[in-house]
Amino acid sequence: MTKFFSEYFDKLYVKNKAEQDAFLLMSMKCDTPKRKRPRQDSERKRPTQSQYYVPKVGDGSRVRVCSETFLSVTCVSRFRLNRLAHHFMTDGGTPKERRGGSHISIQKY
What is the rounded distance in angstroms from the CA atom of residue 64 to the CA atom of residue 50? Predict the structure, then answer.
């Protein structure tokens, strides 16, 4: 079983960040909550709920796993998964990569 998880981990981490995000989203199912329970004095907005899947060892079909198992297999933080799910539900895709670019500071004179 650990060999399988290491293969899954290797598939994830041979890619760049944008491809990793797409790979993670293929292993997730994001949806809106079926019931929204109103809370008093609450500004929290959580428009997503996620289900996590990993491929089965023998035939490759997907098996639903809990979030703790998915986090331990992928070694990704839950905040990254939450950002991916939120961005997928609001914009319909993976987040655009914004790292890099010009590092010249602007002088204010």
Answer: 11
Q: Which residues pair with 28 in a beta bridge?
A: 52
Q: Where are the domains of the chain?
A: 2-34+46-91
Class of residue 86 by CB neighbours under 10 A (exposed 0-12, middle 13-18, buried 19+)? middle
What single-letter amino acid sits at 87? H
Does the pLDDT at position 108 exceed 90? no
pLDDT digits (tens, 9 = 90+) for 32-89: 878 777 777 666 666 788 899 988 777 778 889 999 989 988 889 999 998 898 888 8
User: Phi/psi zone of residue 23: left (φ > 0), alpha (ψ -120 to 50 degrees), beta?
Assistant: alpha
**In terms of pLDDT, which residue wins out, 92 or 46?**
92
Q: How far apart are CA 10 and CA 7, in angstroms?
A: 5
Question: How big is the CA angle at 27 (ends 25 and 30), to the nearest 5 degrees?
Answer: 60
8 A C-beta contact, residue 65 and residue 53 = yes
